[in-house]
Write a structure and sequence with these properties.
The chain has about 190 residues and is mostly beta strands. It contains two helices and 14 strands. The protein has a single domain, classed as Distorted Sandwich (Deoxyuridine 5'-Triphosphate Nucleotidohydrolase, Chain A), CATH 2.70.40. Strands 1, 2, 3, 6, 8, 9, 10, 11, 12 and 14 form a ten-stranded antiparallel beta sheet that branches. The chain has a two-stranded antiparallel ribbon with strand order 4-5. Strands 7-13 form a two-stranded antiparallel sheet. The protein is globular and about 50 Å long. Pathway: Pyrimidine metabolism; dUMP biosynthesis; dUMP from dCTP (dUTP route): step 1/2.
Length: about 190
């Protein structure tokens, strides 16, 4: 069962679901909570490696994964981020989310932004039960024009679904979970698989 706006408010008030900072009620509508773009970004460098072998996370051409991506860059609220057509950037949400063990979250982009070419997540849009931390967005500009992004702009919406019972292995208790208590923009950790 998906939570409606009234349910979301009740889960937040009971602190079963935690979103920090606590969302203003104007951001909770229908079945979603609007969330904002954070100020931490990671960009891909132009490089000479021809491809990444996803079976072993090696870049053909001798580079490592850390060499193809910038360190985390922190933008001020006034500082724009320019996302060129055909470019991918990793960035974090402004909000931090703590999920209970009996709730799954779903991240969706905003239709108005998608109509301009902005994809909010490449594939990872599920927020697992037991998740705790910022959400990293894999944003892609599929449009023809450069998109200007600014920290704290409304960027996406979260919806929540109640599970039939609490999960046996919540994300925060899994030994192999690669992104526990994520703060900021954590790059791919495929090499830890």
């Amino acid at each position: 069962m998906r939570l409606c706006d009234k349910d979301i408010e009740e889960w937040l008030e009971r602190k079963e679901l935690i979103i920090e900072p606590y969302p203003n009620k104007t951001l909770i509508n229908g079945i979603t909570v609007d969330i904002h773009l954070g100020n931490k970004f990671r960009f891909f460098y132009e490089h000479t490696g021809s491809c990444i072998d996803l079976s072993n996370s090696k870049i053909i051409g001798g580079l490592s994964l850390t060499e193809i991506m910038s360190n985390e860059i922190i933008f001020s609220k006034e500082q724009p981020c320019f996302l060129q057509p055909g470019s991918l950037v990793l960035c974090s949400t402004f909000e931090s989310i703590k999920m209970p063990n009996n709730l799954v979250g779903w991240l969706d982009g905003r239709s108005s932004l998608a109509r301009l070419g902005l994809m909010i997540h490449a594939t990872a849009h599920r927020i697992d039960p037991g998740w705790n931390g910022n959400i990293v967005l894999e944003m892609f500009n599929a449009g023809k024009l450069t998109l200007v992004l600014r920290p704290k702009m409304r960027i996406a919406a979260l919806s929540f679904e109640v599970l039939s019972q609490p999960v046996l292995r919540p994300y925060n208790l899994r030994k192999e979970a690669k992104y526990k208590i994520q703060n900021g923009v954590v790059p791919s950790r495929i090499h830890k698989e």
